[in-house]
Amino acid sequence: MAEIKCVGILTSGGDAPGMNAAIRAVTRSAIYNGFEVKGIYRGYRGLITGEIVQFRTNNVSNIIQQGGTILKTARSKEFMTPEGRVTAHETLLKEKIDALVVIGGDGSLTGARIFAQEFNFPIVGIPGTIDNDLYGTDTTIGYDTALNTIMEAVDKIRDTATSHERLFFIEVMGRDAGFLALNGAIASGAEAAIIPEISTEVDQLEELIKNGFRKSKNSSIVLVAESELTGGAMGMAERVKKEYPEYDVRVTILGHIQRGGSPTAADRILSSRMGAAAIDALLDDQRNVMIGIQDDKIVYIPFSKAIKNQKPINRDLLNTLKILSI
Ligand code: F6P
User: What is the value of pTM for the model shown?
Assistant: First the structure.
C-alpha cells in the first residue's frame, strides 16, 4: 500500500457536539505519529473548492469544550455527482493528501464509501451524529450531549405541563431513528416515546391513550421522534384533537437546540478515543472502515456494514419506560 505522509480531515453533514474534540484528537495523534495534517473546510464541498489549511497542534488548541465544528460543515450536492468527486480527487492529489478522516453521519460515510471505492483512496470514518443511528457502534459523537439537552428542556416543559394539567408532545430529532426519543423519555421521566422503529407494528397513540394518564396526575409528557413514520409531534397533536378532544394538548419542537452546546464529558472522551483510533487504524493499514465502540472497546466496522444495516433499538427500554410510567 502507498505510504501515507499527509492526512486530511473534514466534518460533514449535521454538526454534533464533540466534533471539535475529535478534530483535536485526530490532528494531535497524527502529528504525534509523524504525519502532516490538513484541515478541509465545509466538508466535501471544501474538497471541491480547495478550502484546505495545514494544521499544527495549536490549530486545535482550546476547542475540546466547543460545540459545532471549527472546520464548518455542509451537505454537498456536488460531491454526490461523479464530476464533483473527480474534482475532489484532483484536489487531494494537488494538496498531496494521502488519506482522509471523515467525521459525520450516515450520509457522510456513504459519500466516503463511494469515493474510497471509485479512487481506491484510504478513508477512515468517525461516527459524528446526534442521531446514534450508525450500525456497529454502541454510541456516536454528540448523542450523549443531545440527550442531556433534551432532558434539560423536558424538565422545564414539565413545570408548565403540570401547572396546566396538559398533554405535551415534544418532538426530538433523530431523522428516522428513535434513540433520542426513547432514551430521552427515560432520562426525563416522560410517560411514553413514539418512535419510528415500531410505528408499523402498533398504533402508539392508541396504546398511550388506552393506558391513560398516570393515576396520580393529570399532565403527561410524550416524546415523539421526528419522522414521517411517526407523523411527528404536530401529527400526533392533530390526531388527538380529532380523536380524543377531551385532552388539552400542546406541542413543542425542540429543533436545532439539540445539536448545540458544549459536549458532555462522555462525548469528549468518546471523541478523543475515536480520533486517536482513526490514526491507529491508518497505521494498522485499515482502509474504508468506521471507528466504532462496543462494550467500551474500539472496533473497526467496514463502511458497508455501518451504513447498510439498520441499527436496532433495545426493545427492553420500551418495556422499562412503560413500567416506570404507571
Ligand atoms: O442527522 C442529524 C440531524 O440533526 C437529524 O436529527 C435531523 O433530521 C437533521 O440532521 C436536520 O438537518 P438540517 O440541520 O440540515 O436541517
Answer: 0.97
